[in-house]
Write a structure and sequence with these properties.
single chain; mainly alpha; two-stranded antiparallel ribbon; 21 helices
């Protein structure tokens, strides 16, 4: 079998997908309960609400919006457990958000027998988001393969699974990870429906959008993007069907609010609708990399943003690129309209990430085929950022002289090609770019695998009970990936 025939072999591709996805899922799971560090209040807003709703029938948790007169304070003080301490007022009832994601997150803790008045172990409450991460990766592969082919699908899922910011975001137990899955899945089904015109595909769309909305109100907004795509293709009846179908799920949310406390439900939702937004929303979104409430300067994320903007401008007339650009800009506007003008609620950005991964893969492919000086400098300067996450107080950053030497050496072929236009320099530039991408993935994998050991060196952090997934590791290779 020749290299080319193996490259196109179905058996080879299936084996590659199996090995790669096993690796990706393991990387996402390694220390998922330890990093991001346990104790994010946003996670507990969902999990406490869910476990209280399951065990008492009343949604109770803390609220960033403050207490309304009709609410009781079920608990006020410090909740301590697992070497963690959170100062909160637990409000009853709590109707800031729909119940579905809380039921999943708190339900996982309930199944493991956790105490609802304790700091629930991250290994329990993050299980739903971990499964959503696995499913989103699969749909990302299928969507990209449908539009751009097998190898582009492999590259986009690799970026989504090995860029540190993307991976850490997939671990945080927030509703946006569920919405990300439903968003990309309903877009994939829309593409299939436009091609096959099968009604069973259409029938799933309002259900998926409705489930996204029952996780968080912003999930309902997906319906407008799907209606937009259907109307663009003159499918008016289908657009009405999807809109009416989603309306049933909006009714379910209203029924839930009425069953608990209708007046409180209205007051809270009206207050949330008045969250300050403005013209700094989009600039803030485009300049605020992160996955929690702190900025996280992952070069792969910055590269992905450049890619999304470039492709949206340069390739918009191609329907395949157009769809990815529209999916990106639609959710960006959802964030601008709902996420607060400059609030560092960076989980609102999560549904953008699969589409950023696709954009990054497409731009990398173009850069390797036709490299130039600017794209080479961007790739070298951004895609090796994983090295910076391998340092702490005891592990220094790269030495300045060594850094300057490495960067200069890597961009030299591109400079020489720009000056002299010799084919040999172009070939060297391509080799450098491929090497930078491979090394970037390796450094990212080290950064993800070693995130908690590096963060916790000579420090104490809360650790809850573990699960099968939290004890995942990669046989043999772990010695090359773990920085101690």
């Amino acid at each position: 079998m020749t290299l080319k025939s193996m490259h196109n072999s179905l058996v080879f591709r299936c084996l590659l997908v199996f090995v790669a996805f096993t690796f990706f899922f393991t990387i996402k799971s390694v220390n998922y309960d330890r990093y991001p560090l346990m104790g994010h209040l946003e996670e507990y807003a969902y999990s406490w609400m869910g476990i209280h709703l399951i065990e008492t029938g009343i949604p109770r948790t803390w609220s960033p919006t403050g207490k309304f007169p009709v609410q009781d304070i079920a608990f006020s003080g410090k909740i301590k457990d697992y070497n963690a301490e959170l100062s909160v007022d637990i409000l009853s009832p709590w109707l800031d958000l729909p119940p579905l994601y809380g039921l999943l997150s708190g339900g996982a803790a309930h199944l493991y027998g956790a105490n609802k008045w304790s700091i629930l172990p991250a290994s329990y409450i993050r299980l739903p988001t971990l499964f959503f991460a696995f499913l989103t990766t699969i749909i990302l592969f299928l969507l990209t393969k449908k539009l751009f082919g097998f190898w582009m699908a492999m590259l986009s899922t690799t970026i989504y699974s090995l860029a540190p910011l993307f991976v850490f975001s997939q671990r945080l137990s927030v509703a946006e990870n569920g919405i990300t899955f439903f968003y990309i899945l309903v877009i994939y089904l829309t593409i299939l429906y436009l091609e096959k015109q099968k009604w069973y595909l259409l029938s799933f769309m309002p259900i998926l959008i409705g489930l996204a909305g029952l996780m968080k109100q912003t999930g309902f907004l997906i319906v407008f993007f799907i209606i937009f795509l259907l109307i663009k293709n003159k499918l008016w009846k289908e657009a009405v069907f999807v809109l009416l179908g989603v309306g049933w799920f909006v009714g379910i949310l209203f029924a839930y609010g009425a069953a608990v406390d209708w007046n409180l439900f209205l007051q809270i939702n009206l207050q949330q609708g008045n969250r300050p937004i403005g013209f700094l929303g989009l600039p803030f979104l485009l300049s605020s990399p992160g996955y929690s409430i702190d900025f996280f300067y992952d070069g792969w994320y910055i590269f992905s943003l450049f890619a999304a903007i470039y492709l949206g401008i340069a390739k918009f007339n191609d329907k395949r690129f157009q769809l990815i650009s529209l999916a990106f800009i639609f959710w960006a506007m959802v964030v601008v309209f709902s996420g607060g003008q400059t609030d560092t609620l960076l989980w609102y950005h999560y549904p953008l990430f699969p589409f950023l991964s696709i954009a990054a893969a497409l731009l990398l492919s173009e850069i390797i085929k036709q490299p130039n000086l600017i794209t080479t400098i961007l790739a070298v300067g951004l895609l090796l950022s994983g090295r910076s996450f391998l340092s702490n107080e005891f592990k220094p950053q790269i030495e300045p002289v060594k850094f300057r030497l490495i960067i200069t050496t890597l961009i030299s072929p591109a400079i020489l090609y720009f000056l002299f236009k010799k084919p040999i320099f172009q070939k060297l530039t391509k080799i450098v770019l491929v090497g930078v991408i491979i090394m970037g993935f390796f450094l990212n994998t080290q950064a993800i695998y070693s995130a908690f050991p590096i963060a916790s060196e000579s420090k104490s952090f809360p650790l809850g009970s573990g699960t099968f997934f939290s004890n995942a590791y990669i046989p043999l290779l772990w010695r090359f990936l773990l920085i101690q």
